[in-house]
Design brief:
- The protein is an all-alpha fold.
- α10 runs antiparallel to α11, α10 packs antiparallel against α13 and α14 packs antiparallel against α15.
- The radius of gyration is 21 Å and the shape is globular.
Length: 420
Amino acid sequence: MTEELGAIDLAARADKGDGPPADRSLPREIWVLVGSAFLIAIGYGLVSPALPSFARSFDVGVTAASAVISAFAVFRLVFAPASGRLVNGFGERRVYFIGLMVVAASTGVCAVAQSYWQLLLFRAVGGIGSTMFTVSALSLLVRLAPPAQRGRASGMWATGFLLGSVTGPLVGGGLIAVSLRAPFVVYALVLVVTALVSGLFLSRSALSGRVPDDGQPTMTLRDALDHRAYRAALAASFANGWLVFGVRVALVPLFVVEALNQTPTWAGIALTAFAAGNASTLLLAGRWADRRGRRPPILLGLLISALATGGLGFLTSLPLVLLVSLIGGIGGGLVNPPLSAAVADVIGNRSRGGPVLAGFQMTADLGAILGPVLTGLVVEASSFGVAFALTGVIALLAMLVWLRAPETLPVAPTPARAPS
């Protein structure tokens, strides 16, 4: 019964014109977030190919190197509930700026780490800032995007992030040839510039200011969990975190270097191929989700991700690995915008949903924590092939959950017929 009431509520929100009207263009503030996401992703892509090898330079095993990836996600996970409360209490702009500066500081000190444990600690602290700017950016997207353009807004934001990811690993692979520490220095500088520029633009915006208390109740995590679509979104978010933010970053570079006997530069190119596949489908997925519904692109994307990732570890040819990485990226690109749009549909523009967004992010972080560690153990006990196959199964399970989830795309009100 609760889910049926939720569906009625979604339709009612659409009928009332929940939030800004569905005009022809997105608010300027969303474009600021898109540009910032692009710069942030370039920096993140700089350190992605360097991080596992940098950890291994301290004479640790595959599992320990993967734990550096997981540590970042652990702190994101632990601090996510607090980030949701901070966004509701202090506003997105302030939390966004502080979060970027925290990550900049932690990344800068990673460059001077003298031991594995220092690297682990410095990288982990960056997770606090990361969850702050991620939750605040998502909250702004939910609040500012018209309901009929949520898929497009999510797609634009994700595209900015992924276009940066296409560029970042390539540049990062080149910086590795200079020093394993160089990418961290450059990333810290990029984050400082991004924080200052985005903070300047958003501070001049009335739309992105703190929302006054209008008596509307804050949607709680318990409220959201009553929606079957939100529960399905959590399952897909977990799989996405396991695959995209965990295994892809932690295992793919090691697989290319250690199983295929290639240089770290080729590891960066493999990450770039995945990111390019993502970027090529994000806008398409967002528009598809706004016109035909959230479920179709999510289901197709999870299926492609499962098949491409599940077979990756059994390949022995570098060109095939690059091709399958590209295809896997396409699958991931189909999932991301409609998934965020579905969560936004559940929240609606008028409800302050910081805790709900934090819960959505936490499941991705949980996947990013468990994925590298468990698949790292599988690699050491068995093989890369079995580890990637396990990741494919996780994506398939998320797809099965979405098969039972309802559509959340708000239905536009039907124009009244003139009397005949």
